[in-house]
């Protein structure tokens, strides 16, 4: 849930964060255990709407998100809670996991080199036309991560899911092509297989 330093980029087309919000009364009732269970799915949807670019929210919105997160026991528990709610919350949780992994792999020289080698054989992987820059470098995966967050924040969850699936396809293909002696790329291939399945399942219900 935390962008690595420098991973976030400003955007000209983002919808202003103050047009999104968490209902204050709903948040407070959830935190003190008095929220009607029938209202919890709506709260999960509100959290899913603000979470992808939560760093850019207004201070009041950040405070409400923090209240929900702390009540649940931290960021991991927040994602697990979102995953229990089908539709946008579940899809968002699984995409947030992917974007965190993409940011982490941006710092893995072996992974970056595997992606360069993959693009030497397939310059424009399917579904990533217009997304990938001509050259692959340490910023490539974090740029994709940010774009997924941005699409979610702008309320285009199916577009975000399609980009995520194209990205997991590319990374697992790159892992298969990489030298077997590279432990980072081997792990990446396994993770991408798992995430591709999870995101596919969540996306069909969003």
UniProtKB/TrEMBL annotation:
This is Uncharacterized protein. It comes from the Bacteria. It comes from Streptomyces viridosporus T7A.
């Amino acid at each position: 849930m935390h962008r690595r330093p420098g991973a976030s980029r400003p955007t000209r087309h983002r919808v202003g964060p103050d047009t999104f919000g968490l209902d204050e009364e709903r948040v407070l009732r959830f935190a003190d255990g008095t929220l009607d269970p029938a209202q919890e799915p709506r709260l999960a949807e509100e959290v899913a709407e603000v979470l992808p670019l939560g760093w850019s929210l207004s201070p009041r919105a950040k405070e409400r998100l923090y209240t929900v997160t702390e009540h649940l026991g931290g960021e991991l528990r927040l994602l697990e809670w979102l995953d229990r709610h089908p539709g946008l919350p579940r899809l968002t949780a699984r995409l947030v996991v992917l974007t965190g992994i993409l940011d982490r792999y941006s710092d893995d020289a072996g992974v970056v080199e595997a992606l360069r080698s993959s693009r030497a054989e397939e310059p424009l992987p399917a579904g990533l036309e217009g997304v990938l820059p001509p050259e692959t470098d340490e910023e490539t995966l974090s740029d994709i991560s940010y774009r997924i967050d941005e699409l979610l924040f702008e309320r285009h969850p199916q577009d975000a899911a399609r980009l995520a699936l194209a990205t997991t396809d590319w990374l697992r293909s790159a892992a298969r092509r990489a030298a077997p002696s590279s432990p980072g790329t081997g792990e990446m291939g396994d993770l991408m297989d798992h995430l591709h399945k999870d995101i596919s399942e969540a996306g069909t219900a969003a």
